[in-house]
């Protein structure tokens, strides 16, 4: 499967990808499997080759907050592998996944300076994205945040059809709520609002966006 644009693997040359493959070993996980656990200390990274995962954290009250959805080409666990700190998120397979597990990642970076620079750029981009989402939480209502997340999924995973853009949702409604910083009830109401306006159609684990420009306007 081709890497998603902007993910780590898409930034590397064929030779760098092969070197990274040679430094690791392939592994597979079933849907629902916890790949990494928040608070654990481990020294390996995962280069995701197939499938999608969610990166999440839990509040003191036990509420799950979904921080990101990552797809093919993503690098996971790099911060803990570099600085030795505990994992900051839990990574869970949203569907069957496969990837390359690389141990002693810092040594690999020491011998591949260009890759180290690209990693810095990747981390910088993720920090900017996190800042943008924090601004959204303060500036947008729940419907606006749900529309924004649906647009993000459409851009990354959408499939054009005669009726619009179809998105196979990797998230349950509870997980979508955790990704938008809202309650499940608020997300259900937001989806109903978007449906009533004719912007989307929802089904089991899927959304069809009938009016992507209209959805973009509602997101803003």
TrEMBL record:
The UniProt record lists the keyword Transcription: yes
Keyword annotations from UniProtKB, A to Z: DNA-binding, Kinase, Transcription, Transcription regulation, Transferase
One example GO MF annotation: DNA-binding transcription factor activity
Residues of the HTH crp-type domain: 140-213
A family per Pfam: HTH_Crp_2
GO cellular component: cytosol
SMART domains for this protein: cNMP, HTH_CRP
Residue span(s) of domain Cyclic nucleotide-binding: 8-93
Domain of life (superkingdom): Bacteria
This protein's name: cAMP-binding domain of CRP or a regulatory subunit of cAMP-dependent protein kinases
Organism: Nonomuraea solani
């Amino acid at each position: 499967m081709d890497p998603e644009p902007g993910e780590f693997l898409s930034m590397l040359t064929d030779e760098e990808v092969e070197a990274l493959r040679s430094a690791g070993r392939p592994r597979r996980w079933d849907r629902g499997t916890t790949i990494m656990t928040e608070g654990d200390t481990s020294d390996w990274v995962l280069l995701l080759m197939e499938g999608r995962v969610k990166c999440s954290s839990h509040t003191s009250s036990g509420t799950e907050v979904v921080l990101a959805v990552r797809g093919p080409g993503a690098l996971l666990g790099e911060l803990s592998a570099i600085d030795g700190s505990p994992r900051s998120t839990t990574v869970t397979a949203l569907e069957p996944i496969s990837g390359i597990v690389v141990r002693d990642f810092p040594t690999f970076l020491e011998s591949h300076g260009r890759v180290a620079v690209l990693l810095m750029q990747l981390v910088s981009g993720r920090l900017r994205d996190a800042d943008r989402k924090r601004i959204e939480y303060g500036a947008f209502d729940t419907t606006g945040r749900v529309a924004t997340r649906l647009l993000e999924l459409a851009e990354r995973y959408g499939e054009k059809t005669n009726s619009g853009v179809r998105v196979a949702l990797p998230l349950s409604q509870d997980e979508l709520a955790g990704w938008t910083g809202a309650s499940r009830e608020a997300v259900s109401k937001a989806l109903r609002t978007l449906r009533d306006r004719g912007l989307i159609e929802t089904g089991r684990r899927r959304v069809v966006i009938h009016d992507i420009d209209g959805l973009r306007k509602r997101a803003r």
